[in-house]
Design a protein that fits this description.
The structure is a single chain. It is built from ten helices and six strands, in the order E-H-E-H-E-H-E-H-E-H-E-H-H-H-H-H. Strand 4, helix 4 and strand 5 form a beta-alpha-beta unit. The chain has 197 residues and is α/β, with parallel strands linked by helices. It folds into two domains: 129 residues, Rossmann fold, CATH 3.40.50.2300; 56 residues, Arc Repressor Mutant, subunit A (Orthogonal Bundle), CATH 1.10.10.10. It has a six-stranded parallel beta sheet with strand order 2-1-3-4-5-6, sandwiched between helices. This is DNA-binding response regulator. Keywords: DNA-binding, Phosphoprotein. GO terms for molecular function: DNA binding.
């Protein structure tokens, strides 16, 4: 089994890689973030992409979407964040596995082998979250809110999304209303806590 391990925290990545390499049938290539993972995918074939979800540059969900569009390998998200929005979005994008980082090495390897045999493996705790509250944001509202959270002005958001400034304002207003927030920053904070951003 050849794994591309994508994790932005060096110590966590190193420890996880060392644990996975204890299995003689497993080869691990490490990537420090989603951008680095995309370069690795262009150069080599992998059986599984095992990725964190919250990373700079390119999130685990964005990486999952890219892999689904361009490669045939399995994708497993390994996270400490049990947020309903993350699980729901990952399932919609066709994730093969969604596991918590506090799982044992044995259960992780067993899950990876099951996934390679065509099964989908979702941690039971995370599966229950997926049944919960549904993500109310549209993709465009999510993108606008994410840019607002980065401190971008309405004009900058419009430019980044190739839309009119009034349209950007409408997306932000809708997102604020859906989050029952007082402003765009508050809306972004609420959406982030729920895993919708």
């Amino acid at each position: 089994m050849k794994i591309l391990l994508v994790e932005d925290q060096n110590m966590v990545r190193g420890a996880l890689a060392a644990l996975l390499r204890m299995d003689n049938e497993t080869t691990v290539v490490e990537a420090c973030d989603g951008q680095a993972a995309m370069l690795c995918l262009q150069q080599e074939d992998f059986d599984v992409v095992l990725t964190d979800i919250e990373m700079p540059q390119l999130s685990g969900l964005e990486l999952l979407q890219h892999v689904r569009q361009h490669y045939a390998c399995k994708v497993v998200i390994l996270t400490t964040f049990g947020r309903a929005g993350y699980v729901q979005r990952a399932l919609k994008l066709g994730v093969d596995g969604f596991l918590l980082k506090d799982a044992s090495t044995e259960s992780l390897l067993r899950a990876l082998h099951d996934i390679l045999q065509g099964r989908r493996v979702i941690d039971p705790e995370l599966a229950m979250l997926a049944i919960g509250e549904q993500d109310p944001l549209t993709d465009k509202e999510r993108k606008a809110l994410k840019l607002a959270a980065e401190g971008k002005s309405t004009s900058d958001i419009a430019t980044a999304l190739f839309i009119a400034e009034g349209t950007a304002r409408n997306y932000l207003s809708e997102a604020i209303a859906k989050m029952a927030a007082s402003n765009r920053i508050d809306a972004a904070r609420i959406a982030q806590q729920k895993g919708w951003l």
